[in-house]
Every structure is written in C-alpha cells, then in structure tokens.
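[Automated response] Your request has been received and processed.

Submitted sequence:
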Amino acid sequence: MPKRSANIRDPEVIRRFRAQFIRFCEAAQRALDSTANDVASVTDWLSGEQMRHWKLQHRKRHEEMKNAWREYVNARHGDRRMGKPSSVDERKAWERAKRRKEEAEEKIALIKRWVMRLEREAEKLRPPCVRFEEVLLTNMPRAVARLDHMLENLEIYLQAPPPKPK
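Generated structure:
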C-alpha cells in the first residue's frame, strides 16, 4: 500500500480544523441534550396544560349545549303566548353549542394522538441518538489527541534544519 503524505507548510490549518471540530462536537452534544428536553417539554405541555384546557372547555361547552337544548325545547314546546312564534334561533344556538362541544372533544382526541405519536417517534430516535452520543464521547477525545500529536510532530518537523545536500 502506498504511503500517503500531506504537503502542509503551516500547522495553522490543523489548528483551525481542530478548533472547528471541537465546536462541532460541543454543538452536537448540546443538540442531543436539548432534543430530549424539547421532546419532554412538548409532551408535558400537550398532556398537561393543553389537556386541562380542553377538558375544561369540554365541560363548559357541554353545559352550554345542555342550556341551549333546554331553551330550544322550551321555545319549541313552551307557551306560544309568550310572544315567541318560532324556535329557530334557539335551535341554531343549540347546534352551535353542540358543534363547539364536539370541537373540544376533537381537540382532546388530537392531543391524545399527538402525545402518543410524539412519544413513539422519540422512542424510535432514542437509540441512534444514544449511539451518536457514545461516538462523540469516545472518539472526540481520541481525535483531538491525534490532532494534537500531528501538530506536535509537524512543528518539530518544521523546526528541524533542512537536510544538507550530498
């Protein structure tokens, strides 16, 4: 196998690469750490705050729908002498309240689906992230040490006097 050689006249190239490599590894580690936190935050927000909000909305809207239904039934079967010839407005109010309650039910179902999906997808991505983190933690120090060793050898080589011609 032929020997490879590099024509490097200035160790600054390796120093800049080393610095960029370290920055990359640190950024990758921060990204891995923040990803797990972000997934947990979103899951907590959905299953906590958003679920409470929509369950409360569901209860309120269910009450509104029941009240609208009572008003509709009273208007429809109530005493016509009260001056209300039609129950159309009450029926529309009941249908609107019913749609609002159904919307809250849909939101609750969506939140449950998204929480399950988010947890499932995060679980699928956890093993590759763990492997990548292990590679960073084991290979990064070795690679930096190897770059440092290259720099030392290159500096020694560049400081040595050129060989005398024969």
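Summary generated for your ticket: The two ends are 30 Å apart (CA to CA). The chain has one domain: 12-157.
If you did not submit this request, please reply to this message.
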